[in-house]
Amino acid sequence: ARDVSQIVEFMLNCEFGSTLLTKVLPMIAPRVDGFGSPRLIAPHGEQNRVQTYLSQDLLHGILKVALLLRSFLALGPVPNQSAPPTSGHALEEGAVTVSGGGGAGPLASWDIVEVGAGPGLHAATFVAALGARTYSIVDLPTQQHMQHKVMVRALGADIVERTFAFVPSARRAVLADWVLPSYDLLVSTFALSELALDVRAKYFFTFIIRSRRGFVVDNFQDLRAAGAVPSHDTGDFAGLDLVRRLQGMAFNVQISTYQQAIHQPLHPSRAVVITWASMGHEQTVGMGDPDNVRNPQPS
């Protein structure tokens, strides 16, 4: 409960977070009642700015969107990409109306890919607040089935059908028909690091280095401390190794602890938040050709 109250307080004092809680949340919360964890939290701040009951799953979905928006500001603009909102006011102005159509959202021209989307509440919050041209979800079929149900409830069938794609899960290779030449943003929170080493490598070469921006919450060290990582897993394509590989692709990369990101220095998790943005140098390092991304040639 203390963790939840601290997150709510952080959100209410963060410009993006406050807008998400007070403007976007009321559009979604009543529509997803019964999905995710029980609706047990009633956050409220000064002048009772937030009255809606919400589940912890939905709260954490909104938190991730707020952290993601802050990372856009920290990394600055990306060449040949429409600019994300730079203030809560801009976010409020562009928010999608989910009850039967409405605004297109400030990121209506972006192609998004998320690796491991949980119950789908983060994706629903993202599209409700920001929009998207396409939003691809890479996950297990059982999870995708639940995510589809959640998002139809949260956003409406029309938005889901024209926006979302559920990429078939495959151990060896992702079918080319389900992969775009490039993405504007890759998102993965507490998911990429939980995959087997060979799957992390596959997703790195299939999705990560095709993405102009990225936001990854990596909990590999938490998993290792809990004994949930096989002894042969070297940690490649996770944590600092992922940072090094992204730097090698000439991305602008930042890393911080999850504690720093949510302003909770005593939070028990040792997860890290890894974000990156293109500086327009992919051609220089041989990553501009999508076919080359799938099978990079040695230098």
What is the topology?
Layout (H helix, E strand, L loop, with lengths): L1 H11 L2 H14 L10 E3 L12 E2 H20 L12 H7 L16 E5 L5 H10 L3 E5 L2 H15 L1 H7 E4 L17 E5 L7 H10 L6 E6 L1 H6 L13 H10 L2 E7 H4 L10 E7 L11 H5 L5
Parallel strand pairs: 3-4, 3-6, 4-5, 6-7
Antiparallel strand pairs: 1-2, 7-9, 8-9
Helix pairs in contact: 1-3, 2-3, 2-4, 2-5, 3-5, 5-6, 6-7
Low-confidence stretches: 45-51, 289-299
Tell me the distance between the termini: 52 Å
What share of residues are in beta strands?
5-15%
**Which geometry do the CA atoms define?**
globular
Rg on CA atoms, Å: 18 Å
**How are the strands ordered across the major sheet?**
5-4-3-6-7-9-8
Number of strands: 9
User: Which structural class best describes the helix and strand composition?
Assistant: alpha/beta
Description:
This protein has 299 residues and is of the alpha/beta class. Helices cover 40% and strands 15% of the residues. It contains twelve helices and nine strands. It has a seven-stranded mixed beta sheet, sandwiched between helices. A two-stranded antiparallel ribbon has the order 1-2. The C terminus is likely disordered.
Task: Give a brief rundown of this model.
With 299 residues, the protein is of the alpha/beta class.
